[in-house]
Amino acid sequence: MKHIQIYLTLFFAFLAGTAMFASCSDEEEGGFSGETKISATELAFAKSGGTQTLSIASGTEPQVTSNQDWCNVAFVNVTQRGTYTYDITAEANTETEDRTATLSVTAGSFSASVQVTQTAGDGLIVAQNSYEMPSAGGPLEVTLTTNGDYSYTINDSWITEAEVNKARAMTEYTLHFTVSANHGAERTGTITFTLNDLSETVSIVQEAGQGGQGVSGETPYEIAASLGLGWNLGNQLDAHNNGVAEEGWGNEPTTQALFDRVAAAGFTSVRIPVTWLGKVGAAPDYTIDADYLNRVAEVVGYAENAGLNAIINIHHDGADSQYWLNIKNAAADETVNEAVKAQLKAMWTQIAERFRDKGNFLVFEAMNEIHDGGWGWGDNRTDGGKQYAVLNEWNQVFVDAVRATGGNNTERYLGVPGYVTNIDLTVENFVLPTDAVQNRLMVAVHFYDPNEFVLEATASEWGHTGDPAKKATWGDEDNVRTQFGKMKSAFIDKGIPAYIGEMGCVHRNDARAESFRLYYLEYVCKAAKDYGLPPFYWDNGSSGSGAETSGLFNHATGEMLNNAEEVIDVMKRGIFTEDESYTLQSVYDGAPQ
């Protein structure tokens, strides 16, 4: 019996094992017996593309196909329970519109479709890649089609920004830029638009205009036109402490950004006053410190890069006869005079040699406001003309030293100042140096009349409409015409060019007083234009108001100070307007009421 029981046990175990095997085999061959199902009927991809999984539960192996080449289907695996897995891969979308594909799914009698969508790729298109602008400047419209958060950069400050629009679908925008007037040589700027890895560059070519890079002309009026409207980098390289030149007096070191902004604002020439105190060695060589001379050259390079004419000089070395350019002592002692002339020759020889290869955009100016401490009312009035004669000698030493260095200095334009750069004293006592070349010497004077209104701000109004109680007792419009008329008769009409190396008017925080400031500057500039005397505004970098506050720009960043744009606009109007209806009389008639 035991044997029969064992056989039966083995028999039933065999049957059970056979049943289990049959069950497993049936599931592997078609374990899913329900309704065919898919995991999604829609798939969405970003513009960068990628891969997503599509699962299909089916008792029959499905067929999955795509109707677009950019959307690919790849079988991955199938489970024992009849779940088929596919990788759906979308390539990166380089098109600028959204796109769709359809996946067709069939399994026996079952059929379905899956919609695949993908967002658009980056789109950035400019309608025109190059624009030509007139020298007068003006508005510039750039048509841009894009679908993303684009940005742009401008490589030159004479092109100013437009409002940045943002887009999501491919949309056409018209962007409005402004191109400043060009008073120099032809120039090219660019605007580069970027959207992620895409970029488009627009170039702007602006024709040459009047004034700017290169002093030129044979007549005073031609030379004046080439200089145009000037600006002074005041209280910068001319600043000094304890008899040593350095950048100071409230201004940070100047930069290329400043000169670019000055040019973009419409100035065509800059005067860069330079004090050399403490930077010069002992006699007889009077060697100029190389690092300081290189710094001066660097700043001159800023002007050159910006397309500006530039004037450099020896500035506060002669202030009030306190330093080596001591005209009071030189007039009283010939030994002192000879020593001064030796140093003047040595220094200008070195300066001229350093810049001998620079083009005619660069002008040398011998000295600044040379006087004995009396600002024209000192011993010069009683010494029988000795100081005037000494200054004439110094100017001749300067001219001879520069010409002797050769190169472009042979015909470079040179500025030679009159006594204390006062118009009356210059007209009465200045003697033009002898020169080897004609029409290359320019007489330098300054104009700060009346000082109570222009410099001290003790008077708040000026001109024929000003309140007599609020203005100086002298120096109205008739004084401007009289003084400039003297320069015209003494020099301009005789073919001798001249310029106003310094002029200006301090800022006020009162609207009415400021309106008279604007009127004064426009009237002086228009008169200067009519009389052939290109003016240079004095900018000391001060952002305040009242006495000695004549800043238009931050000397480091180029940022405009106070109402600088308004001030510059009236000066530009006076210098550059060619409309025949715009006259000195029309400016006069427009005085504040």
Nutshell version of this structure?
With 593 residues, the protein is α/β, with parallel strands linked by helices. It is 30% helix and 24% strand.
Shape: elongated
Strand content: 15-25%
**Strand line-up of the largest beta sheet:** 17-20-21-22-23-24-25-26
Largest sheet: 8 strands, parallel, barrel
- Report how far the terminal alpha carbons are from each other: 140 Å
The CATH superfamily of the largest domain is Glycosidases
Q: Number of helical runs? A: 13
Number of strands: 26
- What structural category arises from helix and sheet content? alpha/beta
CATH topology of the largest domain: TIM Barrel
Provide the number of structural domains: 3
What does this structure look like?
The protein is α/β, with parallel strands linked by helices and 593 residues long. It folds into 3 domains: 37-118, Immunoglobulin-like; 124-206, Immunoglobulin-like (Sandwich); 220-589, Alpha-Beta Barrel (TIM Barrel), CATH 3.20.20. It is 30% helix and 24% strand. The protein has 13 helices and 26 strands. The strands form 6 sheets. An 8-stranded parallel β-barrel has the order 17-20-21-22-23-24-25-26. Strand 20 (269-272), helix 4 (290-306) and strand 21 form a beta-alpha-beta unit. Helix 6 packs parallel to helix 7 (386-404) and helix 11 (511-531) packs parallel to helix 12. The protein is elongated. The relative contact order is 0.08. The model is unreliable at 1-30 (pLDDT under 50).
